[in-house]
């Protein structure tokens, strides 16, 4: 939890399957309470430490947009 608080995202390495990494960041409601998580899963054996950091940063950056879309009812399609 300390790393999540510091980095704004969590990484799970080989917790469920060997060689698989999961990345997650919290999604909140209007009051700031956690209601969900945005996550991405990848084969960790093919990711450098820098790539893992970059993926975590992207997931962390996307989570607030998901939170805003949930609270405003506006989903932007790209």
List the keywords.
single chain, alpha+beta, 29% strand, 78 residues
Provide a concise account of the structure shown:
The chain is of the alpha+beta class and 78 residues long. The chain has helices at 2-7, 49-72; strands spanning 10-13, 20-28, 34-43.
| Rg for CA atoms | 13 Å
| Distinct helical segment count | 2
Which parts are unreliable, with pLDDT below 50 for 5 consecutive residues or more? none
- Look at the helices and sheets and give the structural class: alpha+beta
What does this protein look like?
The model has no long low-confidence stretch (mean pLDDT 80). A hairpin with a 5-residue loop joins strand 2 and strand 3 (34-43). By secondary structure, the chain is α+β, with helices and mostly antiparallel strands. The chain contains two helices and three strands, in the order αβββα. Strands 1-2-3 form a three-stranded antiparallel sheet. 38% of the residues lie in helices and 29% in strands.
Task: Describe how the helices and strands are arranged.
Layout: H1 2-7, E1 10-13, E2 20-28, E3 34-43, H2 49-72
Antiparallel strand pairs: 1-2, 2-3
């Amino acid at each position: 939890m300390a790393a999540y608080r510091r980095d704004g995202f969590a990484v799970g390495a080989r917790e469920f399957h060997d060689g698989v990494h999961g990345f997650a960041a919290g999604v909140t409601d209007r009051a700031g309470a956690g209601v969900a998580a945005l996550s991405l899963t990848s084969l960790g054996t093919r990711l450098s430490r820098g790539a893992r950091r970059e993926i975590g940063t992207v997931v962390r950056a996307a989570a607030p947009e998901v939170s805003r879309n949930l609270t405003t009812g506006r989903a932007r399609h790209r």
